[in-house]
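Example record

One chain of 87 residues, shown exactly as stored in the release files.
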Amino acid sequence: MTKKEKLFQRVKKSSKNVKFQDFCTLMVYFGFLEIRIRGSHHLYQHPLIDEVMNVQPQKDSNAKGYQVQQFLKLVEIHNLHMDDESE
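Predicted structure tokens for this chain:
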């Protein structure tokens, strides 16, 4: 199992206690592009999806659980896959 797959499995298992940086990295692995940062708000968009993901870290540098759940739902609904590029 690759590093990318391990990260994805860990996030799928528990959407809590995910480091914000790991969450952002995972979004990029799935083809999301960071289109803007304004303060703590990071905006990501996928070329195949009209919806923009607005994510922010919690005070403890973890991702917000509900935002991780939104991302996982988008991956499932749109049948998104990780990029095949090398790690």
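Notes: Helices lie at 3-13, 20-29, 65-77.
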